[in-house]
Amino acid sequence: MFETALRSLADGFLTLWHSPQCAGMIALGCVLIYLAVKKGFEPLLLIPIGFGAILVNLPLTGLWIGEDKQPGLLKMLYDVGITTEVFPCLIFIGIGAMIDFGPLLARPLLLLLGAAGQFGIFLTVILALQVNFTRVQSCAIGIIGACDGPTAIYVASKYAKDLLGPISVAAYSYMSMVAILQPPIMRLLTTKKERQTVMPSGNQKVSKTAKVLFPLVVTLVTCIIAPLGAPLIGLLMLGNFLRECGVVGRLAQSAQNEIANIVTLLLGIAIGSTMRGEEFLKPHTLLIFAFGLIAISLDTVAGVLLGKLMYLLTRGKVNPLIGAAGISAFPMSARVVQREGQKANKKNYLLMHATGANSGGQIGSVVAAGVMLSVLHRLHIA
């Protein structure tokens, strides 16, 4: 028995020795966990992803494919939740139940910032086409710029399954790092005077009727414009309707807590399981990460530049920093804007304005994905 244990230990180490890719991915998983635990970078995302990456690369476990060539635990989790698009869609119910669209309804112009925050998606598609990615793959890569993990997974799982691993990991990694990626761009594009701009809190009252009707109207309009995005926008708005209607408190609480937490955990592990060394460490993976970074950077640039335009048109009444919250990383990006505003001026309180832009970006990213999917479908290039 002791000899058998030693033999198994030796076989495991030999397998790792002959599979440096797997050893590298185990090390990367440990780095992700370190960033989550020690640095506090979105631990709800990075800990399950990091652990999934470690588990799937451990030798002789059969967690992906067993000795009998049957799917292992991680493969079954991936097949059930990712390839069927169930996990990304369920996540949107939880996100919708957490979002308060009141700040956006009080300041509808903030929706423009949410639209500007999708600019990088389409430019990145053009860039990806120049390096021999197919049109379908380029669209899936561009969606990383939405900084919205579930949306990126949804698009990739439909039309670019071969790139699902690096796309999903890139999207969630950049979501967790917006606090690092955005501030340098925000400071580079704005002056100190602009960053110091104090915006009135503007506690405009939004009627209960408006909040209840908003998810219904958005569902109808966006699903007509981009019908293939209906699973995402429909479940996002279902979650928000549960929150706002006021008669299903238990369902709203479950969507915000139990459903969101359980699916986030399972989704993170499933994403981590796509980081198998022999499949993940390829030249195109680095390109995907590079294009994802370009997309998110361009989204931030476009949002801040539109914020600067609003600053000029309103004669200094709009702080351009809120434009950076036009991406879909909710609510991380809004917190970044609040923090940068406070650094420039202690009297600054930009959170409500940034939250409005951020929720507009959430809608914008899903609409952008839906439009892209509809175009792909109609052109029969999927």
Number of helices: 20
Q: Which class do the helix and strand fractions yield?
A: mainly alpha
**Biggest pleated-sheet summary:** none
Overall geometry = globular
Query: Mean pLDDT, nearest integer?
Result: 85
What Rg is obtained from the alpha carbons, in whole angstroms? 22 Å
Unreliable residue stretches: 8-13
Strand portion, in percent?
A: under 5%
SSE arrangement, N to C: HHHHHHHHHHHHHHHHHHHH
Number of DSSP strand runs:
0
Helix percentage: over 70%
Whole-number count of domains: 1
What keywords describe this structure?
single chain, about 375 residues
How would you characterize this protein structure?
With 382 residues, the protein is mostly helical. The protein has helices spanning 2-17, 20-37, 43-57, 73-83, 86-98, 102-106, 110-116, 119-129, 135-142, 149-159, 164-176, 178-189, 192-195, 208-225, 230-245, 249-272, 277-280, 283-313, 332-344, 351-379. Helix 11 crosses helix 18 and helix 19 packs antiparallel against helix 20. The longest helix is centred in the C-terminal third of the chain and has 31 residues, at 283-313. 49% of the residues are buried.
Write the layout of secondary structure elements.
Blueprint: H1 2-17, H2 20-37, H3 43-57, H4 73-83, H5 86-98, H6 102-106, H7 110-116, H8 119-129, H9 135-142, H10 149-159, H11 164-176, H12 178-189, H13 192-195, H14 208-225, H15 230-245, H16 249-272, H17 277-280, H18 283-313, H19 332-344, H20 351-379
Helix pairs in contact: 2-3, 3-11, 3-16, 4-16, 5-10, 5-15, 5-16, 7-18, 7-20, 8-9, 8-18, 9-10, 10-11, 11-18, 12-18, 12-19, 14-15, 15-16, 19-20
